[in-house]
Structure formats: structure tokens, C-alpha cells
Amino acid sequence: MNVKVDPCAGPGLWSIATAFGSIVAGSRVGGTENVPLARAAGRVTAAPIRSRIPLPRFDQSAMDGYGLHADDVAAGRAGPFPVIGAVRAGGAAAPRLGPGTAVRLLTGAAIPGGVAAVVMEERVAASGGAISLRARLALGDNIRRRGEDVVEGSEIVPAGTRLDARHLGVLAASGCAAVEVVRKVRVGILSTGDELADPGEALALHAVHDSNRPMLIALLAGGSGTVDDLGRVTDDLGRMAGFLAEVHADYDLIVTSGGVSGSDADHSVRAIDVAGGTSRRVALAVKPGKPFAFGAIGACRVVSLPGNPVAAMVGTLLFARPLLDRLSGLDARQPEGLAAIAASDVFHRPGRTEFVPAALVGRSAQGLPLVEKLGKGGSARLAPLVAADGLAVIPADIGDIPAGGPLVFHPFTTDFRL
């Protein structure tokens, strides 16, 4: 069978893995700061954080119930046991418990001396100020031991961790009021092109609204960076080079879109050289998003994306966002995606890894996501992205995928995102 190959494929294309290793390289930005715990979500820890106290701080009841003496538990006695007192969470501990008696304990209450187990209140019969057990109790039942969750002085959050609700909870419980984090990465977003107008601006005859800047700002915004809108420049080498020379010192990363293909009107790569930096234009084995460039001006990294919006989004997800993670002090990783099944035939010419908008339409018999390709393809078509639940991936080395065939799916959202 004669398999048609992608006409844009050919020798010299960089694979995603090769490009990732070169583009997403280097170390985190310098500088740290201490921030209050209430403002630490999304920030990246600059050093390991250790617990100042054990968790729990003391032996405590795991539920509402009654504490019994070690002798009675070991002997398997069922009672009746007179209830001699009660302890609530945060309340003063009752006197030491003696054999043959019980103490009322609420969840979180400190375990009085002599208590060796707590019986759930649902498993006792209460009568006349005494209780009798309905089920056998074992030593240690329903007691949270001091330090069983977190040992005092142990590492609770490693360096290079993006803090979310989980981390803030354990940090607060351990008494941490502020954390040392990597300073925010300073990011600038710049569009290029004579044809561009800002959203809401009146359009000239053959002008288009700039969709890339708002989209890329949203993609790169987050707790570990500050993202500035640098506006747009026309397709003029001198103006773009002058602008980059003027602003680069204020940023750790500048992401541009447009002007990267190499035509007479494409100046993104040359402008970086003229501004005193270096940039390398490469052809990626990616569809959409073949033209790409990366480099630096001084300490400022520069990523140059294609101007077509879907291609710009794919390039940001594959490379610019992982680079931002790396600069933030995180362990940057290639997106892995989920194993999924094609709901219908997907046509693909080998040669480039293709990313297509796809909708989740069900589950396969094996329980895998069943996804349907949306739209007719094209790096400038935005509407299919709005209806999509994620991007489906067709590897470069395979052809058409029949209905029921395997593919990889990158969902845009998760149910339990922190």
C-alpha cells in the first residue's frame, strides 16, 4: 500500500524530545523571598521545609467514643464500666483512668493516662451512667499516636515544589506561618505583525484581531510568574530589535508570536541577534507548529512561536510552559497524556506528531476515554478548541488511526485540580 507522507515532513526536523532537551534547559532564576502562608499558593519552595512539631502533637481520640483502661482491654472485659468524666478536643485531660472505669472522649480529645483504646460510641450500650461493650476491643484501637502522621523535624515539603492546598494544610498544621520561595519569574508576551489590531480596535481592510497575546498570557499566568503584556510590534526589523534591546533586562522570559517562519517579513529571529542576543530557528516535527525559535538576550530567555493561534498554543504547552516551570525551580517534564481510544477514523500522514482538538464522547469497553476529533484541522482554526475537552495526539511514525485504535489524549481540565 502506498502511504502518503506529510509534505511538510523531511530530513532535519527536530523531534519533540530533542527540542525539549534544548529549549527547556538551564536552571531556575536567582533570588528568593519569604511570603505569608496565605499568599503562598502557586509559589515554588526554594528550600526543604521541616515540621516544627510532631503531628499529632499528643495521643488523641480518633472518634467520638469511650476510653478504656489497658487491663480491661487486654482481658477482654465487656463491662459495665462507670463513666467517670469527659474530655473534648482542646479541653483539659481527665485524671488518670483506673481499671474498671471509662471516660467519655470526643474526636481530637487528648488521651488520658491509663487509656489504651477507644471504643466507638455506636458499639456500646449505655445505661445508668455506665457503658457495656457490644464488640471486642483491641489495644490501640481508635487512638492517633503522637507523631504518627509527621515526625518532628522531618521534611514535609521538598525544595522545588509548587505549593497547593495540600501543602498549605500540612504547613499550617506544623505551625509554619511563612515560607521561603523562589522569586516570581518575570514573563513578557509580545505579538508581531503588520496585520494585527488589538481586540475591540477598528479593523483595517485586511487586518485581524490579535488573539495570541490574550491566549498566551492566560496559558502562562500562575503563581510562579508575573506575566506582562508587551503589546505588538510591526514587521520591522529595526523596531523589533530596538524594542527587545530596551525591555529584555526587565524579564527572565519573553515569548513572541509571529515572524518566525523565515520569510522576508519575518524578523523575530534576526531581531534577537540585532538586539545583542542569539536565537536558533528550527523546524519541529510537530503539526501545527513546525516553525519555532529559541534563544536569549543576556539573561533573558526568548521563545519565538508561530503566529497561527493553534500552533502558538501547542508550542506554548509543549515548550514555553515547561521552560517557565524550569525557571521557577520546578522539575520540567514533557506532557504525558492519557491512553485513549479513537471514536472514529482519524486520518494522518506520517512525518510529524499531530495535535488535534478532540471531545470526550464516552468510555471504551476497557474503560479508556473515547475521543472524537473536532474540526478539519488547520493551525488558525480556533472554534474547535472551544468545543474540545483536550488535544489528541497522533505520533509522527504512524498513519491513519481507525475507529477503536489507540491514541494519546491530553485533557484540558481535571475534576480534582488543586
TrEMBL record:
Q: In which pathway does it act?
A: Cofactor biosynthesis; molybdopterin biosynthesis
Q: Note the SMART domains from the entry.
A: MoCF_biosynth
Which UniProt keywords are given for this protein, alphabetically ordered?
Answer: Magnesium, Metal-binding, Molybdenum, Molybdenum cofactor biosynthesis, Transferase
Specify whether Protein transport is a keyword of the entry.
no
Catalytic activity from the UniProt record:
adenylyl-molybdopterin + molybdate = Mo-molybdopterin + AMP + H(+)
* Gene Ontology molecular function: any one: metal ion binding
Known EC number(s)?
2.10.1.1
**Signal sequence segment:** none
Q: Which residues form the MoaB/Mog domain?
A: 188-326
Question: Gene Ontology cellular component?
Answer: cytosol
Segments traversing the membrane: none
Function according to Swiss-Prot or TrEMBL: Catalyzes the insertion of molybdate into adenylated molybdopterin with the concomitant release of AMP.
Q: Which family does it belong to?
A: Belongs to the MoeA family.
Q: Entry's NCBIfam families?
A: Glp_gephyrin
Name of the featured protein? Molybdopterin molybdenumtransferase
Whose protein is this, by species?
Methylobrevis albus
